[in-house]
Amino acid sequence: ESVYLNGEWLAPEAAKVSVFDRGFLFADGIYEVVPVYHGHPFLLEDHLARLERSLAALEIANPGQAFWLDLIQQLLTRNHSQDALVYIQVTRGAEAKRSHLPQGPLQPTIFASVSAMPVHWDVPTPVKVTLLDDIRWLRCDIKSISLLGNIMLKQQAQACGALEPLLHRNGLVTEGASSNYFAVKDGAIYTAPTDHLILPGITRMWVLKLAKELAIPVHEQAFSVADLAQLDELFLTSSSREVQPIGQIDDIIIGQGGCGEITERLVHAFHASKR
Ligand code: PDD
């Protein structure tokens, strides 16, 4: 197993960064997760475009498309990866002393590694989620490594026996701690619009495209907490979970508590689109 750190290929335990790295001191950095199927990165252009937007938001220079394509290819070759998740992290870099305001442009710290893709069943087992107040900041569109809110919410969800929190702000469902949500009502799909309150998921975008191809009506419109008990189906999406049906929100059973019909069609369409 080898990981990339600032131009070097290293054994994971040999990869070390400075304690003065702004990623360590301030979580001053961004990341990206790219799924890989049969050795090929999936929707790579879209992931790299989001990486570019995250870097631009922090005013960190992007080493460029060619750099990332080469890095990811080498990472996959060196690790013989077939079905995997590529992790990329860029921090603003290390400086001589701790100072909130960055002291001039620094050499960014670039780290990349690969891990096994979780196994996905043809029709995944429905999971439970728990409704929680979205306590995060107002720039959830940036894929920041500052994930304290997400982690606290994830821990709270685990304590409730739930896979993910179902987050809400001002009465509307935003997203999960590491996923996007879709509701199904009367044959149509609803999901929060891509503004500063959610991460624009690449899987979300792909599922919207698949739904349109299947002639399922799609509304990029947030659904409300008040409507949760009346939903026909609910599912979440992410690079690691793909399309994951949800059978239960706390004590509320969604539909029959199983995988709904529209969700199942999208699960199949998603699996077919990976090949
Ligand atoms: N989750 N929302 C948040 C807050 C996330 O962290 C993620 C990604 C998503 C889904 O985005 P995408 O479809 O591009 O993975 C939404 C990590 C990377 C994961 O679970 O894979």
UniProtKB/TrEMBL annotation:
InterPro entries: Aminotrans_IV, Aminotransferase-like, BCAT-like_C, BCAT-like_N, Class-IV_PLP-Dep_Aminotrnsfr. One of its GO terms (biological process) is folic acid biosynthetic process. It comes from the Bacteria. Coiled coil: none annotated. It catalyses: 4-amino-4-deoxychorismate = 4-aminobenzoate + pyruvate + H(+). It holds the Pfam family Aminotran_4. Transmembrane segments: none annotated. Its cofactor is pyridoxal 5'-phosphate. Its EC number is 4.1.3.38. One of its GO terms (cellular component) is cytosol. Pathway: Cofactor biosynthesis; tetrahydrofolate biosynthesis; 4-aminobenzoate from chorismate: step 2/2. Involved in the biosynthesis of p-aminobenzoate (PABA), a precursor of tetrahydrofolate. Converts 4-amino-4-deoxychorismate into 4-aminobenzoate (PABA) and pyruvate. This is Aminodeoxychorismate lyase. It comes from Pseudidiomarina aquimaris.
